[in-house]
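Re: the request from the purification team.
They wanted to know what the chain is likely to look like in 3D before they choose a buffer screen. I agreed to run a prediction and write the result into the notebook, where they can find it.
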Amino acid sequence: MVTVKIKENSKQSKAIIEMLKTFDFVDFIEVLSQPTPIKNNSKLMQDIETGLNQLKQKKEGKLKFNKLVING
């Protein structure tokens, strides 16, 4: 397997891409732009840890709740 990156910002590159699509032995895996990292993830991580701890307590029978309340 060979990986080739082609920028789609010119007529020539678009023509090459269209030509390659016609070959049976070529598979395309389109990659979208990289996801942007979350800048302030300390609050997110704290909320995730709290939720996981609550689920663990519920599983152990130490905590009872019927609804999850998400504060935004």
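For the purification team: Helices lie at 11-21, 42-59.
Please add any questions underneath this entry.
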